[in-house]
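Key idea: predict the complex, not the pieces.
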Amino acid sequence: MARSWQLKAGFMSEATLAIKKISGHPGPAPGANVERDYQVAKLIDTTTCIGCKACEVACLEWNGYTFTETFFDNSYQTMPATTWNYWNLIKFNEHEREDGTLQLLMRKDQCMHCADPGCLAACPADGAIVQYTNGIVDFQQQNCIGCGYCVSGCPFDIPKFDPTTKKMFKCTLCVDRVSVGLEPACIKSCPTGCLHFGSKEDMSYLAESRAKQLRENFGFEKAGVYDPSGVGGTGVIYVLHDVTNPEAYGGLPKDPHIPWVVRFWKGPAKWIGNLAMLFGVIGVTIHYFRYGPKEIHPRHDNGGKL
Amino acid sequence: MTNGWIDIRNTDMMLIMGGNPAENHPCGFKWAIEAKRNRNAKLISVDPRFTRTSATADLFCQIRAGSDIAFLGGIINYAIQNNRIAHDYLVNYTNAAFIVKEGFKLPEDGLYSGFDPQTQTYDRSTWNYEEGNDSGAVVAGHAAPPPATSLPPGAPKPLPPLPGKVGYDLTLQHPRCVFQLLKQQYSRYTPEVVERITGIPKDQFLKAADMFTSVRKDGDMKKVATVIYAVGWTQHSYGTQIIRTAAILQLVMGNVGRAGGGVNALRGHSNIQGATDMGGVFDIWPGYLKVPNPTDSDLATYLKRITPTASKPGPWDSFNYWSNTPKFVVSQLKSFFGDAATKENDFCFNWMPKVDRNYSWAQIWDNMYRGSVKGLLAFGMNGVCIGPDSQKNIEALKKADFLVVGEIYPDETSEFWRSPGITADEMKNIKTTVYRLACAGFAEKDGSMTNSARWLQWKYAAVPTPGECRLDQDIVAQIFLKVRELYQKEGGKFPDPIVKLTWAYSDAKRPPLAELLKELNGKALADLTDPKTQVTIKKGQQLPGFAWLKDDGTTACGNWIYSGCWTEAGNQTARRETGDPSNLGVYQNWAWSWPANRRVLYNRASCDPSGKPWDPSRKQVWWNEGAQTWAGVDVPDFKPDSDPKDHMGPFIMNPEGVGRIFGPLAAFADGPFPEHYEPIESLVVNALHPNQSNNPVVKKFKTDADKYAGPNDGYNVICTTYRLTEHYHYWTKNNPMNVQLIPEPFIEVPVELAQELGIKGNDKIKVTSIRSYYIAKAFVTKRIKPMMVDGKKVYQIGIPIHQGYRGIQEDAGRDARTILNRLTPTIVDPNAYTPEFKGFLVKVEKV
Amino acid sequence: MELSRRTFLKGAVVGGAGFSLLGFDLTPAQAQLKELKIARATETRSTCPYCAVSCGVLIYTIGDKAKNVTPQVIHVEGDPDHPINRGTLCPKGASLEQDILNERRLLKPQVRRPGATDWQDISWDQAIDEIGHWIKKTRDNTFIEKDSQGRTVNRCESLAWIGGCTDTNEFNYLVVKTMRSMGLTYVENQARV
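Result:
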């Protein structure tokens, strides 16, 4: 009923956002780093997560995804891993510490919005993955060719393939909300405030001060902040009770990197791209001197419909 | 809740026990997290399972289901032994100094004085205070005689009243003063005994006791601790006494009435607070007025019986607010019967039904099973699933003449006649007529609901009802008007109250809820003038609050505690001002809180006897010497002009004016102090008194459906029940989103028990009680550990309640379509009549 | 300026290859976003019907409450002004949209006759008429004016009301008022259990 209406409205959008990185694109993004924008970030404090899954539901509700069949699997966890239409998943782990006490570790798993996104680096399709100037990494399904290279670039196993549309999907950090000044749906819903949203700078400060409080007042000597440098830092940072053991939190990698194959592939590609650009510049310059500036005739397009 | 949700952020210490707010009240639990973040507050979680609340706790203790009194009694003992008590608070704000009657006996053998094994009741006449003179000395042989009324044969002897002036000893040394009795009572609850009963190792218990009582270290009164609980405490055959133990602990530690303190019932549903306030249960009328019984031959007799008189040390003062009871009762009768209610006819007092026995939830099903309850109207209440003993409830419904169900989804109760196992042939023998009426969902209705912080919040309708659905209030109004029409046309038994019930709604068949809320607030039926201030209220105007109520028929008020919610200034429950100048989370102008918009009850106790806040950084109310009045960021819960020198007690609803550590006379059916008893079904005998294991006044039900397992019947595992954060009772099994989060029923089983039985995670297992069985997948978990109880290895399992035989997964045939409450026993707490859903016995096997 | 995904790509290619390198074009590349789905929806303040925290919720409906529109729920979110939940919701509150728009909703009155193996439809008038007769008949047959000791009790012990947990205060009051007037002693509620 309502849902079809929403979907239609979704594709009639005129809202846009500036970008700073583009996948599969020769050369840097135009105008990148010209407009001042602050980096947004999510802070996830696993020490106050109660595994309620409000974020899971808020994500589905906002993005218009509905029921998928799930199965009980000896856990409170909704499903084994995120899927193409389930971007936000709390991972549960019954963890016994060395002193014999039990911890129920709960961690919200979703796209980390890396500063240096492996998915974007690996993606060969021009414009299928972009990074906005505020740091959000977003998939543009219209340009996605469904090759799945982004999967190999991601150290967090996030991009997922939808067999029906043959496109890749993942968390958008609710860019439609963020672009109009709202917080992401998961952040808003979080009952305990274990999720927090703001500038990366502010979130880092909050995270560090919370980790300090955990070390000094609550006996978690190894409490710390997870903001891995291997991917240039992330737009999603965690406070962990034990930052030396991120694997215990449902397999958070200790030192995530973009795989070397992707780096290797990206290196030459970039070099070839630069060469192509040089020829492009020469060509355009010659064209300009021979024919003068190009006049753009408006409305020759089909009105923006795809 | 004595306090409120946001107020939890003001605490320094939380004991969360008998409740799991992280899962069942996540958005309220944020304030517990805020206290941890902003005040470094500590959280102790005590539960039979390591829950998602425990996951955020600083200390977790796994307790045997049903042994809570032993744990809390042990902490009281620890606090007294280590002098971590609030001495001035105790002496001045509780009945610790009151002297108890000679002849009162503590339950060393499991029984208080006055027990009659024949009737399984107590003669409570020794559960009283001694009468005293002004200096507190006991006046010997001066006991007031019981009220003289003609007693029918066999009727229980009426109790003597509380003495007007009690004997007391402010040094707390008198051997029969409440404090000494308390000390003696819980001296038996040593850490060793606590370990034997609860299964919590002594060192862990001591850690918890030390942590909780640390707020009173070295006599400091600044810090505050709170106790937070839910139905994990109420659903026992001594549930009221568990809460009493917590209340006593909080009084002894001086934590009641203070920001960040109190005894806080979370309440599981959106408006069961409001339903209780509104007299939605058999034993009260709206506003907690006791229902009349057959001895109340007229209004005066009734009012005399239920209106308390002050009982306190001679030099002290007691507001005794319930002394206003006649005003509340008469105004309510005027609201019900309008002009028909006159002084001459006792305001139609005799039109109201009188009860002299228990008509509570379990009795409905029991008497329907026995054939005396012929018709049931169930609106938004899935009695078959809710149980206890769902199969008994199904059998009961088969015997009823008719059932009317108002619901928004197909539910188990309306389809009891085709519950699993009933064949088409058997259906033909089920003669019950069932009406299923399509009601309105929450988004289709306006009206107010009262949350557990006592806030009345108005909501607005967002969408119209779908299909042919009707608003619930319209349906009830239309049924009532039909009945009234029939009585008007045909006559019948005692038609007066039906025919003359007030019904002045602008649309009789669709009464607007706004008009009902105005009726609840009350209005003047004549011009009224306050003699002190000369303020006048005109006839027909809305009353500003319950202080204006009269017992002469010049005011009407549906529910006195709600008076003030819709005044001449409009609907106070719709207020939305977000300011909080005190930064204590009071939000004085958001919605409206009963009584009189007070946010923290008994807040006078947040000050020392001279009227200064115990903690200047958390100032709630205080005595303003210059203005000779109480002032505050909250509405003072006190007589506004009572000078601290007059020593009026802060607990103004008690005739004593002080908090009751000792619950005198009829306050409780099973003892003035709480005592540990075993659940009706238990694997161990009571370590304190093996010959009196269970609560002595709890009576078993006696139909052939009612069976109770003994320790040697082969049911060797303790079972507890609960809700999950992903689901809400029997409602969200219809919501695809929630079904997706937790798709199937499961049973939480300790790893060790699973190994013993050869069970792996996801295996189908069968849990059997003496009444019935339940089948679901095993959730093998480290979060429940085997325990040692009185030298015996004991296993506990836990089962969420949420599934039944109608729902998305049920209809798809994905589970066994069994109801958890088939397992639970029909046995109730003797004070609140809440069934014992927690801590019954089962056996576990692989299917 | 109208930017579609296609013009975005063109812009990116042209801009990338030429002007930006030469420092002429300072217009950043843009990517298209999904429209904010609640941008023009009507917002109604309500209270979550589940637990007793009573979170404030905002129900978003299409239409601007104009006369010719039947509002349809498109989204439910927490009310950020509400002092207790401050915009947050739990997984039950967050899924309220699907409680409101639920294909399992009962939409009409039904009756199951004695011995029947299925439901049949019934009109509202008929249902209310029959229920009224049931109540009157049962009450008249069993009403107790005086107990065995001759004391006035005026009660009806053969009918019971059980009320739900989400009923409003006003509805509860209406129930108590009507049921007590009919003499019911069995008036109970989720509050007990």
